[in-house]
Amino acid sequence: MKHFLTAAAAASLTFAAMPALAQDDAAAPMSTAPAAEAELVEMSCAIVGKEAGAEKSNVYAAPDLSVLAMTRDHDGLKLDTAEGFETEGILCERNSIVPAPDDYKAPKSGYPLYVETYDGEEKTGVSKLVLEDGVYGYEVLLGELTDAERATADARIAAYNAQTEG
């Protein structure tokens, strides 16, 4: 069962320590070297979800998780979490909220992808990438894209959707 966060829910998440979190053994370690795009950098990623019996979703630190590296090197993502943990998505901090070429693999694997940008301590952008009913959707929840960024994002979403049609 997939769970999607609303913009209000995503804004209200709090950080917590993630017990018994492991990433897929075959996944690549986090790299500070940019992947397919020279200027795209992913500083960190976390898992959004709830522990068994919890009512409120939290953001759980996952220091070894890198969506850029995992999607570049693998066909999908597999997150191994504690029994009963309900994963609702992945949240990454990057220097751009424009989706990366392989970001589609996160929602394809069942994990909506949220990307945040910061200017110092100030959050300047948040985007959401989902796969619902076989169609990729992208939304900017905070901030704005330039015309060039919007064109890149639109082209990526079109490419993601073309893959599902073929």
Topology:
Elements: H1 7-11, E1 14-16, E2 22-23, E3 42-50, E4 58-61, H2 67-73, E5 79-80, E6 86-94, H3 105-108, E7 113-119, E8 122-132, E9 135-142, H4 147-165
Parallel strand pairs: 1-4, 6-7
Antiparallel strand pairs: 2-5, 3-4, 3-6, 7-8, 8-9
How does this model look, in words?
This protein is of the alpha+beta class and 166 residues long. The chain is 21% helix and 33% strand. It has helices spanning 7-11, 67-73, 105-108, 147-165; strands at residues 14-16, 22-23, 42-50, 58-61, 79-80, 86-94, 113-119, 122-132, 135-142. The strands form two sheets. A seven-stranded mixed sheet has the order 1-4-3-6-7-8-9. A hairpin with a 2-residue loop joins strand 8 (122-132) and strand 9 (135-142). The two termini are 25 Å apart.
Amino-to-carboxy terminus distance: 25 Å
Which overall shape is indicated by the principal axes computed on the Cα atoms? globular
How much beta, percentage-wise?
25-35%
Count of helix runs? 4
Largest sheet: 7 strands, mixed
Quote the average pLDDT.
Answer: 80
Q: Radius of gyration, Cα only, in angstroms? A: 15 Å
Q: What portion of residues is helical?
A: 10-25%
Secondary-structure-based class equals: alpha+beta
Q: Going across the major beta sheet, what is the strand order?
A: 1-4-3-6-7-8-9
User: pLDDT under 50 segments (min length 5)?
Assistant: 1-38
> H/E series, N to C?
HEEEEHEEHEEEH
Question: How many β strands by DSSP?
Answer: 9
